[in-house]
Amino acid sequence: MSLETLPLILGGLVLLVALALIVDGILADREPRAVERRCRSRTGRSRPGEVIVGGGLLLVGAALVGGDQWRWATVAVRAGAVLLVIGTTFNARYLRERLTFRGAARRGRTADDRRHLGDPVAPDPSGARRSNDRRWTERRGEGGA
């Protein structure tokens, strides 16, 4: 395999990913869940933004496949980069939620979760510690087992 075929293979993979994004953005989503398991609703993705990102990847993949012989490669890469930025801004809230909110399984329960589930050990809203809280007294060295 010569080194000149590497951009062709990479360009073909980028074109496949671009086509998958475009098709996923155009086709209708499946039925939503009957019961939402989360306390907060999920942020929906922008389907036009996904199609725009797919179009940007399509231009970048075409520039990779075209190589140095294609006279529009520079224009295609620049236009593809602009489309990628525009599509990403359409989906900024969705991407931020997917990257930052990792779920309760990784964090443990918060005070809101305990209050929502009816746990009797919910923290005092005033912020004052109770003297009978075992964790507080053990930390201070006042007692506990």
Tag the structure with descriptive keywords.
145 residues; mainly alpha
DSSP summary, beta strand count: 0
Approximate shape = elongated
What is the oligomeric state here? Answer: single chain
The SSE order reads HHHHHHH
Low-pLDDT stretches: none
Number of helices: 7
| Mean pLDDT over all positions | 77
Task: Write the SSE topology.
Elements: H1 5-26, H2 47-66, H3 73-90, H4 92-100, H5 104-107, H6 111-117, H7 134-140
Summarize the entry for a quick read.
With 145 residues, the chain is mainly α.
What does this structure look like?
This protein is mainly alpha-helical. Helices cover about 60% and strands about 0% of the residues. The chain has seven helices and no strands. Helix 1 (about 5-25) runs antiparallel to helix 2 and helix 2 (about 45-65) packs antiparallel against helix 3. The model has no long low-confidence stretch (mean pLDDT about 75).
